[in-house]
């Protein structure tokens, strides 16, 4: 359905991005100021049939899958689906459907900010730093609704916003059978969630250092956001470094191969916003005169020329390592003199979840070996990747669902490290590290959630074992590994608040 886009007025004086309103079919709006939580609201529709419930869940799944596919294609972190945001989105979808049944019809398509009791910016859990809402109605499927949002610049900007780390979905139906959809996005680094997170296929809860059952002393390194956490960890990684490696904190797929390079250079792995140098990083670089050079990993879409200019303005020499895509960027890092002589290469999936690739970063860094990324199908294995691993011991990280058997065969894999899930795979990598002589007196632990892998990524530069954890207990595999090894300290990177 075609519609004419018109400007959408901001809901607050601090907007996160420019949004558009498409009259009659779609609306998108963004907010950027923390507001006081408003009253909750009871469900509107009581006569929902079992078939409608099934259709609703299928539609939500289609929208979620479409969102995840888009963010994967853009190299962005996956969003963490939260039950609290699901509730906010569902209540507004119910409300729009009820208003349509009440005679409003298509004019019921208005943002929740029009009714204070439903206003997403008031009713979503406190602690957010940025938020947005997409709404739409149609007579088709969830996939069709997602395509409507993807076809609108304002809605797609919300989906592609790298600052957002959390999401909630709601779908409801009016009596004419029309589907009303709401998606609520949030940026929640510093605020703990009220309620229980809702599971999604690619996410899991975040880290909590007090939840481990293993009798291992823990300490915490964290900052107010991923950029400051990286800076805080830098002091633990190297003293008086002469170099640093800088990567995007918004497009982690280009950042995954960087940990072994940072370790070889004897410097920290730092994160920056793509559009400009993170203030926390700029402050750290000014305060560390021993750092004279910075290696930027990733193309200009990941780390913009403006960032490079700001680094040079600080008197630093800057070199960029990048390729045409994520696979080529990893190969370019592996070709650096610091890593080119390694006889081993670790290979993990380069699409979808990056948890396995991040988990092997510390071990690869300790052993001076590169981390390369594999495509999902053997037919897509680049010739350059096959050539890069030829003659090396190839260690595949992750199960067959992550790196299929035909891909492993095409790469001449010698060994596979995997577990029942990402936590078990991280433990399998840790066992491999021990077998290779990597010290385990101290190990690093960080969130294994897809939306919050940045802390685990920067942890890899320490060149130590990195384990992935969840909130309510660190999981059987992680706890068993900590209990079964002589670990003097577990250094929790990111702390007990939701870490991304």
From TrEMBL:
Source taxon at top rank: Bacteria
Keyword Lipid metabolism assigned: no
Spans annotated as Disordered: 196-218
InterPro entries the UniProt entry points to: Bact_Sporulation_Assoc, CAP_dom, CAP_sf, Cell_wall-bd_2
Domain SCP: 70-182
Signal peptide start-end: 1-42
Protein name according to UniProt: SCP domain-containing protein
Lineage per the UniProt record: Bacteria, Bacillati, Actinomycetota, Actinomycetes, Kineosporiales
């Amino acid at each position: 359905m075609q519609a004419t886009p018109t400007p959408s007025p901001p809901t607050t004086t601090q907007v996160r991005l420019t949004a558009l309103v498409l009259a009659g079919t779609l609306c998108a709006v963004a907010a950027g100021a923390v507001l006081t939580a408003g009253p909750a609201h009871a469900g509107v529709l009581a006569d929902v049939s079992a078939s409608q419930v099934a259709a609703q869940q299928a539609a939500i799944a289609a929208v979620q899958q479409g969102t995840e596919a888009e963010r994967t294609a853009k190299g962005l972190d996956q969003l963490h689906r939260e039950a609290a945001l699901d509730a906010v989105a569902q209540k507004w979808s119910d409300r729009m459907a009820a208003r349509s049944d009440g005679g409003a019809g298509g004019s019921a398509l208005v943002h929740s900010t029009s009714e204070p009791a439903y206003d997403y910016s008031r009713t979503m859990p406190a602690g957010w730093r940025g938020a947005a809402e997409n709404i739409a109605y149609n007579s088709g499927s969830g996939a069709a609704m997602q395509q409507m949002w993807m076809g609108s610049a304002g809605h797609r900007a919300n989906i592609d916003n790298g600052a957002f780390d959390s999401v909630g979905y709601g779908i409801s139906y009016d009596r004419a059978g029309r589907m009303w959809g709401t998606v609520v996005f949030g940026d929640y680094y510093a605020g703990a969630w009220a309620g229980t997170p809702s599971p999604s296929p690619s996410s899991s809860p975040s880290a909590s250092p007090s939840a481990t059952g293993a009798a291992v002393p823990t300490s915490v390194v964290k900052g107010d956001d991923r950029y400051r956490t990286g800076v805080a960890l830098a002091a633990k990684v190297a003293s008086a470094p002469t170099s640093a490696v800088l990567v995007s904190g918004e497009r982690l797929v280009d950042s995954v191969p960087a940990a072994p390079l940072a370790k070889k250079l004897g410097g920290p792995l730092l994160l920056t916003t793509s559009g400009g140098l993170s203030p926390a990083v700029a402050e750290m670089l000014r305060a560390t005169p021993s750092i004279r050079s910075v290696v930027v990993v990733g193309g200009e879409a990941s780390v913009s020329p403006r960032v490079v200019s700001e680094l040079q303005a600080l008197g630093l020499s800057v070199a960029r390592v990048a390729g045409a895509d994520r696979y080529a960027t990893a190969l370019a890092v592996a070709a650096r003199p610091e890593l080119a002589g390694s006889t081993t290469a670790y290979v993990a999936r380069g699409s979808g979840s990056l948890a396995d690739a991040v988990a092997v970063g510390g071990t690869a860094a300790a052993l001076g070996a590169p981390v390369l990324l594999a495509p999902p199908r053997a037919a897509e294995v680049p010739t350059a990747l096959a050539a890069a691993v030829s003659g090396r011991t190839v260690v595949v990280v992750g199960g067959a669902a992550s790196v299929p058997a035909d891909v492993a065969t095409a790469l001449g894999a010698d060994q596979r490290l995997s577990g029942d899930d990402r936590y078990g795979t991280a433990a399998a990598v840790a066992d491999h590290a021990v077998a290779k002589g990597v010290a385990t007196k101290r190990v690093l632990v960080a969130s294994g959630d897809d939306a919050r892998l940045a802390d685990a990524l920067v942890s890899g530069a320490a060149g130590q074992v990195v384990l992935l954890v969840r909130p309510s207990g660190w999981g059987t595999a992680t706890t068993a590994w900590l209990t079964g090894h002589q670990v003097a300290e577990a250094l929790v990177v990111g702390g007990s608040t939701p870490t991304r």
